[in-house]
Amino acid sequence: MTDSGPVERLSENIWLAEGGIVDFYGFPYPTRSVIVRLPGGALWIWSPIELTPDLREAVEALGAPAHLVSPNKIHHLFLGEWKDAYPQAKLWGPASTIKKRKDLSFEAPLDNDPPADWDGAFEMQRFTGSRFMDEIAFFHKESRTAIFADLSENFSEAFLKEHWSWWARPIARLWKIVEGYGYAPLEWRLSFNKKTARAAKENVIAWNPERVIMAHGEWIRENGQAYLKQAFAWL
Predict the structure, then answer these.
(1) Residue 123 in contact with residue 114, Cβ under 8 Å?
(2) What's the CA gap between 200 and 74, in Å, rounded?
(3) Which of 22-26, 126-130, 172-176 has the lowest average pLDDT?
(4) What φ, ψ does residue 65 adopt, rounded to 5°?
(5) Dihedral angle at the C-alpha atoms of 113, 118, 124, 129, nearest 10 degrees?
(6) What is the pTM of this model?
(7) Domains (range + CATH), the chain
(8) Using one digit for the tens of pLDDT, what is the confidence trace for 42-69?
(9) Which residues form a coiled coil (predicted)?
């Protein structure tokens, strides 16, 4: 692992970029993006964070952003500014994101089959069965990295003490979106048809990832399959 300014290299063709904190219904949430260099050399940007000048310089040192990816309808805030900066890049997301962001022009909705444009770099699994939310999980095959947005949240006690109010910290523990659990938020879990979601769960566990990266919380550097079994124990 090496660092290059605002991006952190995880393996030969995958990097992390940490963003600022955003307010989500009164709860402070950190932001994080994943950058992958596809076999053809183009960059794939998952859940784009705020595009600061430093981040833009670091990203362009890696290659040309060609694919901007929203994993669910919550992760859309910075798609527009990235598209403005890289008008040639294609926008991707599930149908729920496309419906929410009618101001943007997307490619065909994402489901379980990766687009041919992505050079065979990924496997995908769409989690359905909730009336309120769906999400597409990704697996970068070369680095054995599974990528989740809100299906797993894994806040550290240190982060909660620094950023969450005293009255909010017990909520995080009650929801089990903390280290030791890594669950999805409680209201989302309660909305799922568990039978439908279990099939998706088994598929992502079968990926047998080494790393697990989530948008919010402490990401997992090794033994990723064991972490996923824990994070999806509610199913």
Answers:
(1) yes
(2) 20
(3) 22-26
(4) -60, 125
(5) -60
(6) 0.95
(7) 2-108+122-231 (3.60.15.10)
(8) 999 999 999 999 999 999 999 999 999 9
(9) none
Burial call 19-49: b when 16+ CB within 10 Å, e when fewer: beeeeeeebbbbbbbbbbbbeeebbbbbbbb
Tracing tokens 């605002």 back to the chain, one arrives at 6
CA–CA gap between residue 104 and residue 83 (Å, rounded): 9
At 123-164, the pLDDT tens digits run 999 999 898 899 999 999 999 999 999 999 999 999 999 999
Upper half-sphere CA count for residue 73 (Cβ side, 13 Å): 15
Least Cα distance to 227 among 157, 148, 172, 169 occurs for 148
Rounded Cα distance, 104 and 35, in Å: 21
Distance between CA atoms of residues 234 and 186, nearest Å: 10
CB-CB contact of 148 with 215 (8 Å): yes
User: SS3 of 162, please?
Assistant: helix
The span from the CA of 112 to the CA of 178, in Å, is 28
Taking 60 as the threshold, does the pLDDT of residue 225 lie above it? Answer: yes
Place of tokens 């964070």: 49
The answer to whether 101 touches 124, Cβ cutoff 8 Å, is no
With 70 as the cut, is the pLDDT of residue 38 above it?
A: yes
